[in-house]
Design goal:
Blueprint lengths: L2 E4 L5 H14 L3 H5 L5 H9 L3 E8 L2 E12 L6 E10 L8 H15 L2 E6 L6 H10 L23
Amino acid sequence: MPDIRRLGSGDLPAMRALNAVFGRAFDDAQAYGGAPPDAPYLAGLLAKDHVVALVAMEGGTVLGGLVAYELEKFEQARSEFYLYDLAVAEEHRRRGLATALIAALRAHAATRGGSVVFVQADHGDDPAIALYTGLGLREDVMHFDIPVAPAPRSRPEE
């Protein structure tokens, strides 16, 4: 089994390689590689306690990985972990890497007082849905993207 480890601020090449894996896996190379952040930004992000980037590596090659965010809660002294991106390079799939990456995230979350890891899956992404169904309980929810800057409202006609 490949080595699974958390990336830190000195692991920029591995993080850039993981972004390339994401770009290929999600068929969205532009989003994951079209405007890469500069080194100080990326190093700063990887240094944050609430940002978790895990990679599965073999012989210095990133085979896959995940990015998750710790969300501290107000209603109880606990955290939830949002698994934002998870991908394994196509040629390394069906080896249990995604499950091992999630297990490593669960172990990390437990050390941080985490109560749950949650993740979204798109309708029609049957491999992801099968993976997540085997690991947890399904909730059917809606997802909304709300723009940061509100759209200007038109004035009613007088």
